[in-house]
Amino acid sequence: MTNTTKFRSVRKIMPRPSAHWVGDGFRVYPVFANSAFTEEVSPLLMFDYAEPKKFPARVGAPLGVGQHPHRGFETVTVAFQGEVEHQDSTGKKDVIGQGDVQWMTAGRGIIHQEFHSREFTKTGGMFEFCQLWVNLPKKHKMTKPGYQAILKKDIPVVNLPLKSKTSLAEEIQSSGDDIVLGTARIIAGELGDTKGAAKTFSPVQMWDVNLPHAGSEIDLPFPADQNCMVFVRRGAVQVVSGEEQQPSQDQGENGKQQKTLKNSDLGPQDVALMRLDGSDTLRLRVVEPDSSVMILGGEPLNEPIAAQGPFVMNTHDEINQAISDYRLGKMGK
Fold first, then answer.
1. Is the dihedral of CA 33, 120, 109, 111 positive or negative?
2. In whole angstroms, how large is the CA radius of gyration of the chain?
3. Whole-number mean pLDDT of the chain?
């Protein structure tokens, strides 16, 4: 008898798209490209990533995006380097720094602005961030606007693989079964026994994963009934799909390991959309040292998506109502 592990398979790989500017402060890659605002990535909607870019110190107004409305979803901004300053119509005003996350619920309507912070504008420096749009279920689309300022220190960190404790540098003194090959910051969702920092309206997974050791392999549990995406921030990884059979204990040394595996290569800003194939295990092989990926996804909402500009609802009539409410000054109160 053998023990078989099935690794989640890749449905398609989307290479790095062309970058464009959002406002005058954010040069971003629209990571989901043509799959944005589709059930393929649900409950996520859109993903913009700004790769590391040096901004010089400047005098005058900060760079960014001025006031604009949203309705029907949430925006999640992660500051990897630099600072982002946020202000909205509910009275919230905040600066998120390196490692912090801003989780804003637009709900029934909010008007906000996003700029480089005043301090970052004065000093200049490296800037790297991403913003994801997370859809709200139909029953929560008109919920009260809200804001979660999630500081770096409040985001739980999990050693990988799960239950590992010993650093690779200490491997020579270790049994080899508890070596830490990477870490994951659990912004939202759950990995093993660790729950993410953000409160969500439906199951959402958002993990910031660092994989420093080239050649290492990491197996990650991921809910079999949830959409899953693997995005490479830097470095390179392979997503390993297929089946691996391990001999059982009663076969002893005579048992043979059997593999039917396929490797899918991902480089910087590439993303793999994984299949809903019944597997609850994701395997990654690290190709370049100091690689970093984001593991994203969640439970598909299976609801109609009507999107236009800054509004995401379920019907075009609801979109028209959102446009009307904004023009009449009824949004953001």
1. negative
2. 21
3. 92
